[in-house]
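Sample 1 of the test manifest.
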Amino acid sequence: MSEDEEMYEHHAYDVIVIGAGGAGLRAAIESSARGARTALICKSLLGKAHTVMAEGGVAAALGNVWPEDNWQVHFRDTMRGGKMLNNWRMAQIHAQEAPDRVLELEEWGALFDRTKDGLILQRDFAGHRYARLAHVGDRTGLEMIRTLQNNAVHKGIDVFMECTVQRLLKDGERICGALAYWRETGRFVLFKSKAVVLATGGVGKCWKITSNSWEYTGDGHTLALEAGADLIDMECVQFHPTGMVWPPSVRGILVTEGVRGDGGILTNTENRRFMFDYITEYFKAETADNEAEADAWYTDHRNNRRPPELLPRDEVARSINSEVKAGRGTEHGGVYLDIASRKPADYIKKRLPSMYHQFKELAGVDITKEPMEVGPTCHYIMGGVRVEADTAATAVPGLFAAGEVAGGMHGSNRLGGNSLSDLLVFGRRAGLAAADYANAFEGTLTIDTQAVEETARWILEPFERSEGENPYAIHADLQECMQNLVGIIRTEDELKEALVEIEVLRERAGRTSVIGNRQYNPGWHLAMDLDSMLTVSEAVTRAAIERKESRGGHTREDYPSTDPALGRVNIVVRRADGGITITQDPLPQMPDDLRKLFEESS
Amino acid sequence: MIEKQVTMRIWRGNAEGGAFTEYVVPLAEGMVVLDVMFAIQATQAQDLALRWNCKAGKCGSCSAEINGNPRLMCMTRMDTFEPGETITVTPMKTFPLIKDLVTDVSFNYEVAKTMPAFKPKAPDADGKRRMYQEDIDRVQEFHKCIECFLCQNVCHVIRDHEENKRNFAGPRFFVRLAALEMHPLDVNDRRELIRKKAGLGFCNITKCCTEVCPEDIHITDNAIIPLKERVVSDHYDPVLKLWRTITRRKTERPEA
């Protein structure tokens, strides 16, 4: 065996898909169906990706509950929810194709909850004008990932589980593969591939209080940036309004928006439904200003306006934050989310079984009898890799991105339920375009062995150092920094302070040492993941400094209003000269026929 | 005030061998076993291998044996143990050890490949598919499976008899097969597979799987026994078999 063969396991594919959540699985299924030899690479075991944690549902204008729903209404809700920063074409494709993608899951064996006449039941969610979320109790993500997984198993896709991609490889301007390592053995895997689909999810592990798992370290954002692609809207991070707050060990775990969609209300320690105090001008016309109307809306959408608890997530998260700051929060720094006093126990257990279980087991709270304590938790990043709306293609030939890692679809704030549909719609389109690209590609690709060796050396460095920094300690400090300085409410001073701290942390991350060997070594894996977390943290912070206004998930205390001029641009992050550059690029222009949808009264 | 602490006795090692190592960890309110593991990784053993993802009982990654009981580490609260009790954590026994608490669960993914795909019947005349909630309640129970593989781990057919793995799919896949068989739209016929290759006959319904299921799926009563009834009655009823051959229809579904 040559030295190279000992060092690297070699594979060649037409398309490799990195990430096996909803977007990655859907992309791999499509790519394989187009005849491309396809590999699916994931950091965890198959079926454990973040999609499995999605609770409330998948948004699609099926019109099963409200026949007046259609793609135009969904499109309009999505754009308004994102405060018009969305890529209009992505939002349009998403709204138009989501119903087909949901029905396709049914075709593949998914069992959504049913209406009385046997169709897919749809539930209310924040920011959606009509009950629109196809769901399975509060475990929709599990149903979705398992359905995709069971389908993919029969498609001849090679799955590389517990395998982490550390670098994308290029031949000139083109993508030609990726360098990865097996988590189990620490051995390197060298993929040669005509096309790569990034479906790596988000970045939440940069924050201390988050609903995200260990995998969410911004790998795909960083891989794309290093390969020469653009990131947009990185300042737009979603803090979900309702995470668990007590006990400390569960802080940040998600509490589905379905609780509010199904009738739950938010109250403070003065027992006041405080969301009535936070109805912004932007949503005033469509939001109830009194409890009677808000409550009547659940059964009669036509003659009542929606309750303020169902304002988009950015609005509700900010409101909870303000209540706690004003001293009307619980002793643990949250507010109350109450469904116990609003709905019968049987209804709660049927509609929200996993919330019932989660609170009972982890917090000792019976949600059919007592209110929950909740507060904001870092949940999702709207920003991501800039892609072409129709093909999910990035600026780098052969590189595609779909799902949370891609930017544009959700603008400055994502509506609940629009993520699962995004994964399906753009996962499919990315897989399709990547396969077509690979199938049409003629020519040869040569792997840059110098780049491979350079990265391989860097990956192994922590083993060569002794008495270095502990990767866990650096991670904890980064989370503290991002939580305190780049959180829900931001100021220029704190953002600049964060940049200084990130720089210090980056130096420390260059001096990590790990104990043990290359076999399944989480300390070593974290040392690698720190690099991408630091990169995205810097990208988010720099973009947040650049956007001197408040919009969606990005709130500046020093610039509290929206600025119409900034509403017409994306903040673009690029890699240049070893550093990060920031520019403002104009948003794609929406055609007049779609623009008209926003002129009618809401 | 003396800080509360706990002694954890954790299996450290790989296929070549290993031993228990004790770690003393400070406790905070509401901690689960997985939190204690994180604390050990952060301060005492960076290379302690374990799997986790959601930390909320939804992904089924952090399966282990805690004081001998197969559990999810994320859903096992520290305050369920006696104060001062040393807590022993070992990897799942049925699967080959990789390192520490991480086992090679590829057996399950191999069995998954042998499960014939879902095959829907034609849609209604208007192109829609109708199913009624009462007809899918049972199957939705099966779809709650988070693939923690704890049922596979405790099933003595494979726990104590490695050689049976070749001929036995295990409780997780009986649940999957039951879900497919009872799906109102599915038309695939898997009875031969269930009887022969999946080895349903090996199961002598001791209900160990049901007891450890963190999702409270009634694996034995609702999945395995109905499958057994279906396979057995099909196999020994020549009239029914002939009728089915003629009409090419599946059995009537048992009442939910």
